[in-house]
Amino acid sequence: MSHPSHLSHLPHSSDPCDPSMISLMAISSGYDSLLAGPAVVRRTDRGIVRLRGADRVTWLQGLVTNDIAAIQPGQRVYSAYLTPQGRMITDMWVVAISDSLLLDIPASLSASLATRLDGLIFAEDVQIDDVSGELAVFQLFGSTPAEGIATALVVDDTYGIGSHAAYVSVAEVPSFLASSSPAPVEVTLDTLDILRIEAGVPRFLVDMTDETIPLEAGIEDRAVSFTKGCYVGQEIIVRVTTRGGGRVARKLVGLVAPGTAAPLPVGSTLYAGDRAVGRITSSVFSQRRGDVIALGYAHRDFTEPGTSLEIDANGERRPVIVHALPFVPNHT
């Protein structure tokens, strides 16, 4: 399926050699490749912690928020690892392969998480290693590698675009890229981030931190099982959900900024009149929508789609409107 170029929606420069214009053209071209394929993104933002041993599944089941008990090789489950107070240590994809589980997590956390998890092993048969230097992570759109090259290849529709997540031995990366058919165009992480925000998917260490409860970020439908057995932080999640009706002080919302092509400054304060009610965490120019969109947190009284707010951007008030997530329909 072909897609029109989105350059007409981007801010223009009169100088075709303007570096900013060249950058915008590259982003637009890569964005179109993600939509139509074939394209590949090197997920250098991801790290891998490997769990081996006979007790790896039952041991991890008691730690993370989602149900991983039935996960089979070639499958993965999105989950979170919490403190006893219900706040996030990290989110993760738990990927099953024949002899181990791979925890796909933010790259900057892999070493510390491996150490932290290793300290929780007592008599269980579990071995934990940070293998981020041994396995590379890719996301493929409209292209498939030759069979058997990837350590794991799983369907990934997280951002509303059909793709595959591939976990590849570093030694096999050249063969993996050469064998992928049709030959994919390499696209940057920054361009992939446009898809992420359009899909309304929060990113840990950006839109979620170690102060975030999963219910605030709205990831409970993807990351939390309400029927599995005990896990760390479960008491808080259950208490808020059952006794508090799911009400939290703040919620992740989508925001649209009319009449501007410049992304909203991350960290900008959201206002309802003179009252500070939240802040911006991510923002991009959306080619598919033709306007600026953002993710941010707002006080629970100001989360209804259509609510008018303002941000303080460099001392200037700018209007923003709360928008339902995702910003664009799924493209799968």
Topology:
Layout: H1 19-36, E1 39-42, E2 46-52, H2 56-61, E3 76-82, E4 88-97, E5 100-106, H3 110-118, E6 127-130, E7 135-141, E8 152-156, E9 163-169, H4 173-179, E10 185-186, H5 189-198, H6 214-217, H7 220-223, H8 234-243, E11 250-257, E12 269-272, E13 275-286, E14 291-299, E15 308-313, E16 316-323
Parallel strand pairs: 1-10
Antiparallel strand pairs: 1-7, 2-5, 2-6, 3-4, 4-5, 7-9, 8-9, 11-14, 11-16, 12-13, 12-15, 13-14, 15-16
Helix pairs in contact: 1-5
Reading off the top of the CATH hierarchy, the class of the largest domain is best stated as Alpha Beta
Amino- and carboxy-terminal Cα gap = 12 Å
| Rg over alpha carbons | 21 Å
Quantity of strands, as a count: 16
- Domain count, please report it: 3
Q: Report the principal-axis shape.
A: globular
Strand order of the largest sheet: 11-14-13-12-15-16
Number of helical segments with 4 or more residues: 8
β-sheet strand percentage: 25-35%
Q: Which parts are unreliable, with pLDDT below 50 for 5 consecutive residues or more?
A: 1-23
Mean pLDDT, to the nearest integer, reads 91
Judged by helices, strands and strand pairing, the structural class is alpha+beta
Q: Quick one: biggest sheet?
A: 6 strands, antiparallel, barrel
The helix fraction, in percent, is 10-25%
Under the CATH scheme, the architecture of the largest domain is 2-Layer Sandwich
What is the CATH topology of the largest domain? Answer: Gyrase A, domain 2
What does it look like?
This protein has 332 residues and is α+β, with helices and mostly antiparallel strands. It has helices at 19-36, 56-61, 110-118, 173-179, 189-198, 214-217, 220-223, 234-243; strands at residues 39-42, 46-52, 76-82, 88-97, 100-106, 127-130, 135-141, 152-156, 163-169, 185-186, 250-257, 269-272, 275-286, 291-299, 308-313, 316-323. It has three domains: 7-36; 42-198, Probable tRNA modification gtpase trme, domain 1 (Gyrase A, domain 2), CATH 3.30.1360.120; 249-332, Beta Barrel (Elongation Factor Tu (Ef-tu), domain 3), CATH 2.40.30.110. The strands form three sheets. Strands 11-14-13-12-15-16 form a six-stranded antiparallel beta barrel. Strands 8-9-7-1-10 form a five-stranded mixed β-sheet, with helices on one face. A hairpin with a 4-residue loop joins strand 13 and strand 14 (291-299). The termini are close together.
